[in-house]
Amino acid sequence: MAEIVLNVEVRERTGTGGARDARRNGLVPGVLYGGDTAPVSIAVKENEFRKALYTGKLLGHLVTLKYGKETQPVIAKDVQFHPVTDTPFHFDLMRVDEKGSVKINVPVHFKNQDICPGLKKGGSLEIVRHEVELNCPANAIPEELVVDLATKEMGDTIRIGEIALPKGVTPTITDRDFVLATLKVSSAAMSEAAEEAAEGASEADED
C-alpha cells in the first residue's frame, strides 16, 4: 500500500454550500470518483492534508484512503488552491486497483542545462511538453521523466523514444515518437554568427 494515508470524512452536504461549510470547520473538501461507484463528497482535516501535500508524494501518487476501518487505494489527481491565500481549496481522488494500471500525467524535467553544449553556444531550450501522459502500474508511477542535456547540441530534437521508461510504463500516444523539446539556435546566436561571417568576408576582401 501507499506511504500516505488520508483519513476522510463523508460530507453529508454537497455543492458549493457544503464545501464552504467544510472549510469553515477546518476541512479541505474533495471528491472521490472512478470505478463502478458513484462519486462521493469527502473532506480531510486541513492540517493533515497540508502535511500529506508537502511531502511531495501526494499529487499523482498512490495514496491510501481511510474511512473508519475501511481502506482503499486512490490517486490524488488534482489539488486546487485559493487564488489569494494559496491554501488547499479542493481536491480530487480517483479510485484505482492497486495491481492495475492508470493513465496519469508525469512531469518532464531537464537536467544539466548548465553544461549543455548547445546552450553554452547560445542556443535556447524550447520545451514542447512539460508533462507526458503515461500508462503506468498504479503501484509504480514514476515521479518524473528526466531529460539529460549534457551532450545536446544546437539543432537537436529530443523525443520520447530517448527516455528510458520504467518497466510496464508506456506513453498513451503510441503512433509516433513525439517531441519533448528542441535546442533552437537563438536570435542572438544567429546575429553573432552573421557578424562573424561578415567579418570573415571583409578580411578576405582586404587580403
What does this structure look like?
- The chain is an alpha+beta fold and 207 residues long.
- It has two domains: 5-97, Ribosomal Protein L25, Chain P, CATH 2.40.240.10; 102-206, Ribosomal protein L25, C-terminal domain (RNA Polymerase Alpha Subunit, Chain A, domain 2).
- It is 20% helix and 41% strand.
- The termini are far apart.
- The mean pLDDT is 87.
Whole-number radius of gyration? 24 Å
CATH class of the largest domain: Mainly Beta
Strand fraction equals: 35-45%
In CATH terms, what is the architecture of the largest domain? Answer: Beta Complex
Write the element-wise H/E pattern from the N-terminal end onward.
Answer: EHEEHEEEEHEEEEEEH
Number of strand segments: 13
